[in-house]
Amino acid sequence: IDKTVPGASLGIDSDGFFGLETQPRRVAVVGAGYIAVELAGVFHTLGSETHLLLRHERVLRSFDPTLQDTLTDWMVHTGVNVHKKTEVKRVEGAQGGPLTLHLSTGATLEVDVLLWAIGRHANTENVGLAQVGVATDDKGVILVDEYQNTNIPNVYAIGDVQGKFQLTPVAIAAGRRLSNRLFGPEKFKNDKLSYENIPTVVFSHPPIGTVGLTEPEAREKYGDDNIKIYKSSFRALYFGMVDEEHKEPSVHKLICTGPEERVVGLHIIGLGSDEITQGFGVAIKMGATKQDFDDTVAIHPTSGEELVTLR
């Protein structure tokens, strides 16, 4: 990594975060994904001067644009130093000591900890895959079919190494279905994990929940004329007694398609979104329509009721 960015090894990754024994006074987090967002939020909430360096304009670029915009703007509002269109070109300093970051903008940044959260790749080199002929792509991801089979009989791959949804619960679910199919009774002979409509949460500040297609994905798949968007922006009642500047935003968005308005995307940000998403994930997995949502009596006063009262 030092060949690409001189001095980059003076930084740490997300594993190194858990090895920190003292709270750094100044931190730079590089990345726009959920790890970067979550750890930047932790540092900032604890009181560290926090800088988040983005190559582009927004965080969470694979998420729905509404979530990207809302969270990025709120992080800026709350005092996270978000550096847009900024890359680290060189790092100077000593391991464990203050570091000077030379940025693509020409500026320098003095920090105590540099945390790289720019993504991970499958650790499949030098484990003998080539010797037995297991196929990988140019990034080292193991190629599998819908049943986790590689191209070699009796060799399987699950989890991050096969490149789909790099989330622990997904790997566990895929592993259970694989073991059911290999070692379970006859009724499990075709058991496999569906990778559609997997609920995902980002433990940002405030948290994010998402299930299904983003708005751009839905428009590309079904066409603009076959998509209807329902969206609401509000402040959770929890913040009713605090000053306006401290009221976290909440945005709830449903993406529906077809004359029956089947819900193909749910994207929410705000207090409680992590808990709300799990239950609605079941509904969307079962093929719920907008009418199903409308027919559900709201629980008041909650943030979740917003999803069944959208008009």
TrEMBL record:
Catalytic function, reaction form: 2 glutathione + NADP(+) = glutathione disulfide + NADPH + H(+)
Cofactor(s) the protein needs: FAD
Residues covered by the Pyridine nucleotide-disulphide oxidoreductase dimerisation domain: 198-310
Gene3D superfamilies assigned: 3.30.390.30, FAD/NAD(P)-binding domain
GO molecular function, one term: flavin adenine dinucleotide binding
A matching Pfam family: Pyr_redox_2
Domain of life the protein comes from: Eukaryota
GO cellular component labels: cytosol; mitochondrion
EC number per UniProt: 1.8.1.7
One record GO biological process: cellular response to oxidative stress
The entry's keywords: Disulfide bond, FAD, Flavoprotein, Oxidoreductase, Redox-active center
InterPro entries assigned: FAD/NAD-bd_sf (IPR036188), FAD/NAD-binding_dom (IPR023753), FAD/NAD-linked_Rdtase_dimer_sf (IPR016156), GSHR/TRXR-like (IPR046952), Pyr_nucl-diS_OxRdtase_dimer (IPR004099)
Domain FAD/NAD(P)-binding: 12-175
Subunit structure and binding partners: Homodimer.
Similarity section: Belongs to the class-I pyridine nucleotide-disulfide oxidoreductase family.
Protein task: Catalyzes the reduction of glutathione disulfide (GSSG) to reduced glutathione (GSH). Constitutes the major mechanism to maintain a high GSH:GSSG ratio in the cytosol.
Name of protein: Glutathione reductase
Organism of this sequence: Phellinidium pouzarii
Lineage: Eukaryota, Fungi, Dikarya, Basidiomycota, Agaricomycotina
